[in-house]
Amino acid sequence: MLLHKEILIAGHLKKAVFKNTAVYIITAFIGIILLYAAFSGWENYSNQNQTSEKYQQESREDWLNNPDKNPHRMAHYGNFAFRKSTLLSVFEFGMEPFFGNAIFLEAHKQNSANFSEAGFSNSMLRFGEISIAMVLQLLLPLLIFFLGFNAVAAERENGTLKLILSQGISWKQLLRGKILGVASAILLIFVPTILVLVLLWLLLQDFTISTDETIKMILFVLFHFIYLMFFCVIAVLVSAASKTSKKALISLIGIWLVLTIILPRTTQAIGAYLYEAPSKIQFNSDIEKDILKQGDSHNPNDIHYKAIKDSLLRAYKVDSVQKLPFNYSGFIMTEGEKISSRIYNEHLENLLKVYDQQNSFSKAVSFLNPYIAIRNLSMGLSNTDYSSYIDFQKQAEIYRYTMAQKMNALQVKYISNKKPGPNDKPLSISKEHWADLEEFHYEPKEIPAILKSEILSIVSIFLWIIALFILLRIAAKNLKAI
Amino acid sequence: MLVLLFKNFIRSKGAKIGLVFLLLIGFIGILIGQQFQQKQQNNIAEAALYQKEHIARNAAFHKDEMGLLLYYIKFSLINKTLPLNPLAIGQRDVNPSIQSVTIRGLEGQKYDAELNNPNNLLSGNIDFSFVLIYLFPLLIIAFSYNLVSEEKESGTWKIVSTQSENTFVYILKLFYIRILSLIVLFTFLLLLAVLILAIPPDFSLLTFYGISVLYILFWFAVSFFIVSLQKNSNFNAVILLTIWLFLIIILPAVINTYIVNKYTIPEALELTVKQRNAYHEKWDMDKKITMDKFYQHYPQFKRYPLPHTEFNWLWYYAMQQAGDDDSVKQSQELQTKLEQRNKVSQLIALFVPTLHAQLQLNEIAKSDLGNQLLFLKETQRFHEKMRLYFYPKIFENAPVVEENWSKFKVETFTDSSQTNCLKAFLPLLLFSLLLIGLGWGNFKNNRKEAF
């Protein structure tokens, strides 16, 4: 039979593992954490989506219920973009607690996304959060190390290693068997977790699954499985290379600490240290300065707007803006919005470039650190990563711009050019026009876009697979029994 | 003998690597703090400069209408950054340390977030407090997990127990050396930070030091207790790391999730929606309703009757005020919830030493949620002060040029809340004493069999 000896070795290891009562305790403990994570993830998700949906609807109704008025007032009345979470964010919170949940969208002004969970929390959040992804990415690897550290080292200590090798079992078979053993032990936790996960996932969408969500879920499970297998291989390799099981344990714990706690923070810190991002006040004042340079629609003597005025008067052969066939101030505001949005977007692009540079270090380190690779990938799949956040902001900004320009167009078209006297009723248009603006809908990124932005993580995971296979080969050739 | 034990300890490769590693990361933590401090200082300097230019420019543009001018200009309030702050950055990277507000409705401006790279926030700062809270315990564990077990496993324990009169004192000496080394290392790092960051040697610094030392002692007490169980090295290492994992990652995360889900804040979103409507709907209402409300809030402004024009600034600012006044309930609820969150997390932290140490350090450095809440309250006071100053000027349309605009400098808020030393020190001390007591008992009971 194929792999017969390996299966024997694996079975033996599994038996040994489950003789240890501590393993049961730890497994039960992880089980409880998993349940808690699933429960709180669900609660979090439904809370956030219910509130977002409720207020998104409410704000839409408010918008439509506005009475007749000048469209420019509607542009200032504004709209809200509330962020909704995707299904997989039940399992992977990612950066969600640090994103703002709501952006107020109004004319002339780009607001920040406010009300992030982090802003309202004590520093506790920095210790991390309990989510299923956290258990899979952080705790299970540690458990694997605890299970696997003496896989080979203990045999060496007890002197049984020589016996096994002299009985015609090759190093290759031994390593494979041991890896299989650790893996099968860990699968006893992984498989039920995934089953619960899938069930929860089905329940949350009432068993109506979309292809996009399904692919995301499959990839989520698949990559986490591969990720856990890495740690099985690493555990057995280190155990095989160590003289004593104590040394193996210390090395493995050291590896775990560096990969999951120390490297992610340090690399991000290096990036942030080297590329300093502007503060909000600096960012805003830079934009204001640029807008002043380009032309300030609020300044009556501004050269840019004076030129527009003059050319309009010439083209329509009139001597004052009141005699133009359309609403002049609406026209000017259209131009102002165009200029200010362009300038804002340019500055934003520059800011995002700085953020990208800051992130580039930790991204590059995913080649050395499978933890970062899987974390980025899993955040990407659950739309809780950095690029999803930026994506939400950009969609909201596009919506804001459309809204402002739509209102300006209504003003240009329907509002009379004659200024009302100080005691006249203000000019207004019918409220029916408010429905011209469609409701804001955030469309989370779909699989092709996610795979594209996470290509680095995927490549690094494949490189890790190859590297571990090569390492196994080298180890099988060079390991000594003593 | 102590000198010998020390030499033996410091000669081991692991000890040297560990100490150097901690020293290095500690130094990096200080550098990161320094960069944070410089950034804060730059921001404040920029804010002051920006405000000056901004007011001057707008005052020149809109010199005829006080009401229009005040529509535009922003006044900044700064949350003072203590010199200790770079050591425990806490929430100061999430929440802005500068609030810039116009005298229009406050609720729409109060919660404006700082610009941030969420990736940086997610991984968190490697500041000085991180090194203390996360990494010192690891080194403590690495230094002490095998204190007795190693000698037993290598067979040298018998020699030790026959040669020294009291093995318990011998164990204490082993601990003493390690405690001393780490406290010396910590003190050295803190002194370095004091020099680099120009931290004044005041009471806050002393409390900071006190908590840190007690925190280090707490972890030694944990190790002491585990060593007293006299199991083998592998067991000790696994169990100590599990405790570390539990106290530093799992428990705080569970508590955080609990608090977030228990005290959800839909009020935040409700507040903004409500505030927007409360202000905007007034445009389409009878002006009298708005004005009555305004006069009710500020009886002193009854002397300004509503002019008979379609638009005027008195009515405009009364509408803005209405946005705040009508959403006051949501605003207060939000504040109460946040205070509850703060209180509950502090209460729970009393029983989780790691969390307690982190929250206390942040509290001393004025970078915790409590400080943020006080800052928000102060923003409200500041905003009210500016409103009350400018309202009469707007309603009278006082000439813009007669105002001395250069006197409106950025203001600074100093959080003067005191740290309760008893509350700060006691939990750490009690936990340590308890563990030491239990450990001591274990050694005593086991003496007959083990030694």
TrEMBL record, chain A:
The chain crosses the membrane at residues 21-39, 130-153, 179-203, 215-237, 249-275, 455-476. Residues 133-262 form the ABC-2 type transporter transmembrane domain. The keyword Transcription does not apply. PANTHER family: ABC TRANSPORTER PERMEASE (PTHR43471), ABC TRANSPORTER PERMEASE PROTEIN NOSY-RELATED (PTHR43471:SF1). GO terms for molecular function: ABC-type transporter activity. Keywords: Membrane, Transmembrane, Transmembrane helix. It is a multi-pass membrane protein. Pfam families: ABC2_membrane_3, DUF3526. The keyword Lipid biosynthesis does not apply. This is DUF3526 domain-containing protein. It comes from the Bacteria. GO terms for cellular component: membrane. It is found in: Membrane.
TrEMBL record, chain B:
It comes from the Bacteria. InterPro entries: DUF3526. The chain crosses the membrane at residues 17-36, 128-148, 175-199, 205-226, 238-259, 424-443. Coiled coil: none annotated. Pfam families: DUF3526 (PF12040). Signal peptide: none annotated. Keywords: Membrane, Transmembrane, Transmembrane helix. This is ABC-2 type transport system permease protein. It comes from Flavobacterium sp. CFS9.
